[in-house]
Design a protein that fits this description.
Blueprint: H1 21-29, E1 35-42, E2 48-54, E3 57-64
Antiparallel strand pairs: 1-2, 2-3
Length: 65
């Protein structure tokens, strides 16, 4: 199980780290982001989904439906 606790790189405050930028860039420009499947979940009647984590966006998870 992964932790939601995030540390900012040395010399930076967490508010100075933009974790959403790469995600919006991928959506806008169609760039590819690598993600790791961390668990399989069942959500309502939708069946099984993958919960993923992005290495380039620590603390941000997503669902693949």
């Amino acid at each position: 199980m992964t932790s939601n606790f995030i540390l900012a790189p040395e010399g930076l405050q967490l508010r100075d780290v933009d974790v959403w930028g790469p995600i919006y860039d991928a959506k806008t420009y169609g760039t590819i982001m690598e993600a790791r499947v961390v668990r399989v979940r069942r959500i309502g009647n939708q069946g099984e989904t993958w919960e993923i984590e992005f290495e380039e966006a620590p603390g941000v998870t997503g669902l693949v439906l």
